[in-house]
Amino acid sequence: MSEYIIHELIALLFMAVALGMDAFSLSLAMGMQELRLKRIALIGFTIGIFHIMMPFIGILLGKVISGQIGNMTTIAAGLLLVGIGAQMAFSAFQREAKKLIQPFGIGLLVVAFTVSLDSFSIGLSLGISGVKTALALILFGASSMILSWIGMLLGRKVHGFLGKYSEILGGSILLGFGLRLLFG
């Protein structure tokens, strides 16, 4: 029995880190925007909360409906990331251009929602499989929060080296990640 629990814990841990890598990529790009440490803490915490809420909603719905919704969430997340990344990269060439979505207020909620859409899809399948819900949600939230913090802190360091070109790099990362979601 304890061997089964260990195997399930390891599987959930790997799944949590894989889900958190999306948050890491996005956070690396956001960290290049010269964010303060308090903002970085808030963004990571918000992303962690969304990585708890979205799979929880997915688990609940997964018990009720089939997995056909999963593909639509991946497409929506991919399109949002392509749009945000393209706008971020192009705005680096224009001094007066405003960023479309910044990690403040509603923009922070949009960013956290976008990066956690894939965890919703995972939640759908976990709801069908009957996994230990509380453990999965805690691991998903903690790993995405920690990986977000690491990504933003690394992004701050990269921004110091690259200056204004870091926005182009950050936008390219988001654009590429969105395209990867759309086209596999």
UniProtKB/TrEMBL annotation:
PANTHER family: MANGANESE EFFLUX PUMP MNTP-RELATED. Its main location: membrane. HAMAP family: MntP_pump (MF_01521). It is found in: Cell membrane. One of its GO terms (cellular component) is plasma membrane. This is Putative manganese efflux pump MntP. The chain crosses the membrane at residues 6-28, 40-61, 73-93, 105-128, 134-154. It comes from Oceanobacillus arenosus. The gene is mntP. One of its GO terms (molecular function) is manganese ion transmembrane transporter activity.
